[in-house]
Each structure stands twice: as structure tokens, then as C-alpha cells.
Design a protein that fits this description.
Rossmann fold; alpha/beta; 2 domains; ABC transporter transmembrane region fold; 572 residues
Length: 572
């Protein structure tokens, strides 16, 4: 938790003022029972209505002061706790955005989502509770105990019995529930993961009629969450009845011994009532302290999960944030892989082994191979989504590690396998590479990507509202728009990662023709279709992370068995 204190900056004033106003509320709570006792012992006993009215007015005034102080404290506490939560979420989101794909793979989307929402909320609740109770509970505990001792010192010895019993019950329950909170949090992560997976893959689930299977899988996770939540809630819920039982027995003791004191004239009825009120306030303060401790146990658990994210350093580090001056007359290859080897974290073997490949400026390169052959792994090394485990990748003769992320990735237009669009207008989505792209640039990209036919029919055209994930578009439309997005701004390198899988052969052919004629860029076509890559200047054939052939279509048909098998399986 201490590591998160830096996010408390800017809210010190509220964190000091809130407890300050809480002192006034606590003072009124401590004063009122004694005033009520005087009303009973003096006003009621002597039938002095003027005294009752005066003391009653004072009690009402103190209540108004207490309520006003509580509201002001609540405002400051809410401002501070929500502001601190905002600071943590903002910093956490920024830090997550520094992660390479390796770190995102390690955590997973569901748990990161829970940590930035649910876990930060727990910290906000604990901080808010602490600000409101840090002064109230100790002052109420001490003040009520002092006032009770002023009323009758011997009778107040009852507190010496109830305090250890209450504190013991609190710490016993806390010790049992602490590991259960951690287990519940992990079960919540699992439920979130399954929910997200099913919502994203709803079409696949229905296509294979696996609703019952997925419902059963979700039910198991939900039952585990319910079981752990009920267990920890039931144990935590025992705190209130246990403390209430202790207090009730203590009240019986006060009435028993206090009643005897009243009979012999050592105490008045009002003093006994005030004593009971102070005892109730002490019990409330002890329960409040227990609730603060429970909230902080949850918060400490969540803080550990949040700090795990903050403590995770990105494996791909931006070593240079300055722009590199490139010679326009450089004769270096546009892209070069030198003995590049790459393995995913925790994988038993390399995805790419000792890759040596030269791609010259303006060339169109095809990369083909079976599933898991390493096609996507190669192109992920170019924009540094991952770093090589051995060897290097160069662009324009300069190691990609020497570029700033902005300069490196501004050279590249990437179309991923999965077509991802974001909520907003079509114009907003097309301007991701170039924020100030003109209508002419967008129109050109739309035309090349073969999207003109449906974009021109959209209501409001570029102002058309796209739903999250592009759900109001077909798969082929989404794919063509992601291609258009990559083309806006004229990238130097265009990477198409199996980005025509949802297109028919005629549209695919028209797309490749338009790219070849209208785009002045180095193009990398990743595909499992031989027809997509066969006209490339150079085709790279992969198998199990190894290059088994490099050359033109005709040469590979004669000399590369893997390529020939792929081609013949698709054409014969």
C-alpha cells in the first residue's frame, strides 16, 4: 500500500480537513448523552419544562452542528478518495500501455480489467473510510470511556472486560477471512475471463451449439466465486452479532450494578442511561475500527495486485525517444533480419530460428506457411511488438531498437489478422495513423481498400457511427476498413497479416492490384493463400519457424516441396 502513496498527492488538504470536521461531529456525540442525562435528572425529575426546553434546544443545535460537520467531512473524503482512485487508474492505464505483447499475454485482459476497476474501487472505499473514521473512532472510544469513568469509575471497569473480548473477536475473524479475500478475488478474475471470452466469441459458441457446455463452465466458476464469497461474508458477518452479544451482556451488567447504585443514591437514572449510551458508542467505535481493518485487508490485497502490474516492466523498452535523421540516399535494405531468433515467454521452442532476410525498398514480399509456422511472429518483430531473443531487425539500415516508438511505428501501416474497429465515427477510425488526414486521403484509402461500394451507401458517410468492435458492419467490411485505416498517411511499410481472409477472391485480387499500382511502399503480404502471394517479388516459405524456401513463385514450385504442397492443395 505504501507504494501507492505517491498517488495521494494533490489531496492532502482534503485528507486533513475531513478528519478536522469529524472531530466536531464526534464532540457532539460525546456531549449529547450527558446533556440528556441532565434533562432527565433535573428537568424531568423537577418538572422544570423551561430547563427541558433549554437543554433540548442545545441538543438540537449540537445535532445540527454534528450533521453539518459530517456532510462537510463526507464531501472532503469523497473528493480525496475518488481523486486518488482516478490518479491510480490513470497511472495504471498509462503503465499498461507501455507493455509489450509479452506482458499483455502474461496477465490477460480479464485480470487487468478487474485490477483497474474493481481493485482500485476497493482502495477508494478503504481510503474514504479511513479519512472519515481516523479521528472519529479513536476520539469516540477515548471520549466515551472518559465520560463513563467520570460518571462512575467502578462501573466503568466493565469496559476492561468487554474491550479485550471485542478486540479478540475482531482479530480472530480477520485472521480467518484474510486468505479468503484473496481466493475470492482470483475466483472473480476467472468469472470475468469466461464472461469476456463468451461475449466476444458468442457467434462461435452458437455456431457449434456449445451454449450448454459454456454455461456449465461458467456455472462451475460462478459457484466457486459464490462459495468463497458466501464463506468470507458469513465469517465477516459474525463480527456484528458477536460484538452485539458482548455489548448486550455488558448493558445487562450495567443495569444490574447501576440499578443497585441508583437504589442507594450513588447514581441517578439519567447517569445510568448516559452510561449505557457511552457503552453503545464505545461498541460502535470498536466495530468501526474492525470494519476499517477489514476494508484495509481487502485494500492491501488489491494493492498487491495493482503493484504487481506497476512492478512489471515492459520487455520492449524505448531506448531512444529522439528522432533519427535518415539519409534519403541510403542504399541500405528497407527491412533486414539478421540471424533473428524469437521465442514466446514460457514456450518450449523458438517461433523463429536464425532468420536472415533482406527486403528492399518498394518490394512486395509474400510470407506463406502453415498454421503456427511463425508468419505473424516475423511481422510482430518489425514494429517491436516483441523483441528478438537473439539477432536483430533493421529498418533503413538502423536497428529497430534505436528508433523511438513513434518514429518506428509511423513508418508502418499494419493490418492485423483480427479486424478491430473502435466506437466512434468512420472518420475517427480512418484517422488513427494520421490525425489530420484530409477527405482526399481518406477517399483514396477507401478506394484502394475496395470499400467505396459500401462506404458511399452509408448514411452520413464519414460521419457514420461505428459501434464498438465494428459490430454494425460485416466481417468483410471491417477487414477492408482496417486496410483503409493502414493506408491513410502513406506508410513506408505496409504489412497485411492475413488481412484478406474475409474477402472473396475477386475482391482480394482487386485489392492486391490497387495496392501494387497506387501505393509506393514496401509491402509484406502474410497469407495462407498461395494466389495472394504468388505475384510477389519474393516469397518466403516457413515451416516450424524455419525458412524452407525464398524465391519467386515459379522457382519455389520447382525447388520447394512445402510451397508446392500448399499451392497444389489449393489449386487442384
Amino acid at each position: 500500500m505504501r507504494k501507492l502513496f505517491k498517488y495521494f498527492k494533490g489531496y492532502k488538504k482534503q485528507m486533513w480537513l475531513a478528519p478536522f470536521f469529524k472531530v466536531f461531529e464526534t464532540a457532539t456525540d460525546i456531549a449529547i448523552p450527558m446533556l440528556v442525562a441532565n434533562m432527565i435528572d433535573i428537568g424531568v425529575a423537577n418538572h422544570d419544562f423551561n430547563y427541558i426546553i433549554i437543554m433540548g434546544s442545545i441538543v438540537i443545535a449540537l445535532n445540527i452542528v454534528g450533521i453539518a460537520s459530517a456532510l462537510i467531512c463526507q464531501k472532503f473524503a469523497a473528493t480525496a478518495s475518488t481523486g486518488i482512485a482516478y490518479n491510480i487508474r490513470k497511472a495504471m492505464f498509462e503503465h499498461i500501455n507501455t507493455f509489450s505483447f509479452a506482458e499483455l499475454d502474461k496477465f490477460g485482459t480479464a485480470t487487468l480489467n478487474n485490477r483497474i476497476t474493481h481493485d482500485v474501487t476497493r482502495i477508494r472505499q478503504a481510503v474514504g473510510m479511513f479519512i472519515k473514521q481516523v479521528m472519529r473512532s479513536p476520539l469516540l472510544l477515548i471520549g466515551s470511556a472518559v465520560m463513563a469513568m467520570i460518571i462512575d469509575l467502578k462501573l466503568s471497569l466493565i469496559f476492561l472486560v468487554i474491550a479485550p473480548l471485542t478486540i479478540g473477536a475482531v482479530f480472530l475473524i480477520l485472521k480467518i477471512t484474510e486468505p479468503l479475500y484473496d481466493k475470492t478475488q482470483k475466483n472473480l478474475d476467472k468469472v470475468s475471463e469466461i464472461t469476456r471470452e463468451n461475449l466476444q466469441g458468442a457467434r462461435v459458441v452458437r455456431a457449434f451449439n456449445k451454449q450448454e457446455y459454456e454455461e456449465a463452465r461458467f456455472s462451475v466458476s460462478a459457484k466457486n466465486l459464490r462459495k468463497s464469497s458466501i464463506k468470507v461474508t458469513n465469517i465477516s458477518a459474525m463480527l456484528t452479532p458477536i460484538t452485539t452479544t458482548i455489548i448486550n451482556f455488558s448493558i445487562i451488567a450495567v443495569l444490574w450494578f447501576g440499578g443497585g447504585q441508583v437504589n442507594i443514591g450513588l447514581l441517578t437514572q439519567g447517569q445510568v442511561i448516559a452510561f449505557i449510551n457511552y457503552m453503545l458508542q464505545i461498541s460502535a467505535a470498536l466495530v468501526s475500527v474492525a470494519n476499517i481493518i477489514i476494508a484495509f485487508i481487502k485494500a492491501f490485497n488489491c494493492a498487491g495486485r495493482i503493484n504487481e502490474v506497476f512492478d512489471t516492466k515492459p520487455s520492449v523498452v524505448e531506448t531512444n525517444k529522439e528522432e533519427i535523421n535518415l539519409s534519403p540516399l541510403s542504399s541500405a535494405p528497407k527491412i533486414e533480419f539478421r540471424n533473428a531468433t524469437f521465442a514466446y515467454q514460457g514456450a518450449s521452442k523458438e517461433a523463429i530460428k536464425d532468420l536472415n532476410l533482406v527486403i528492399n525498398k518498394g518490394e512486395t514480399i509474400g510470407i506463406i506457411g502453415g498454421t503456427g509456422s511463425g508468419k505473424s511472429s516475423i511481422i510482430n518483430l518489425i514494429p517491436r511488438f516483441y523483441d528478438t531473443t537473439k539477432g536483430d531487425v533493421f529498418i533503413d539500415g538502423i536497428n529497430v531498437k534505436d528508433y523511438s516508438f513513434h518514429q518506428l511505428r509511423s513508418k508502418i501501416g499494419l493490418v492485423p489478422q483480427k479486424a478491430v474497429l473502435f466506437k466512434g465515427t468512420l472518420r475517427d477510425n480512418l484517422r488513427w495513423r494520421k490525425a489530420d488526414a484530409s477527405v482526399e486521403e481518406m477517399t483514396k484509402a477507401i478506394k484502394i481498400s475496395q470499400s467505396s461500394d459500401f462506404v458511399n451507401e452509408l448514411p452520413d458517410k464519414y460521419s457514420y457511427k461505428i459501434q464498438a468492435g465494428g459490430k454494425n458492419l460485416s466481417g468483410g467490411q471491417r477487414q477492408r476498413l482496417t486496410i483503409a485505416r493502414a493506408l491513410v498517411g502513406d506508410p513506408e511499410i505496409l504489412i497485411l497479416d492475413d488481412s484478406a481472409s474475409a474477402l472473396d477472391f475477386a475482391t482480394d485480387a482487386a485489392l492486391r492490384k490497387a495496392i501494387k499500382e497506387d501505393i509506393d511502399a514496401t509491402i509484406i503480404l502474410v497469407s495462407q493463400r498461395a494466389n495472394t502471394v504468388k505475384n510477389a517479388n519474393k516469397i518466403v516459405v516457413l515451416e516450424n519457424g524455419n525458412v524452407v524456401g525464398i524465391g519467386k513463385h515459379k522457382d519455389l514450385l520447382e525447388n520447394c516441396m512445402v510451397y508446392r504442397e500448399i499451392y497444389e492443395s489449393q489449386t487442384k
